Amino acid sequence: MYCLFEYASDNNFSLQINPASSVNPEHLQYFR
């Protein structure tokens, strides 16, 4: 699993959007 993406199935390497991922609206605060 790659956080933003996840494998679509166990027997191939196609990726889909991970429904558990989200966008942090305060992400720019990490770079201060």
UniProtKB/TrEMBL annotation:
Single annotated GO MF: ubiquitin-protein transferase activity
UniProt xrefs under Gene3D superfamilies: Hect, E3 ligase catalytic domains
InterPro entries listed in its UniProt record: HECT_dom
Entry keywords, A to Z: Ubl conjugation pathway
Domain spans labelled HECT: 1-32
Name this polypeptide is given: HECT domain-containing protein
Species of provenance: Dibothriocephalus latus
Organismal lineage: Eukaryota, Metazoa, Spiralia, Lophotrochozoa, Platyhelminthes
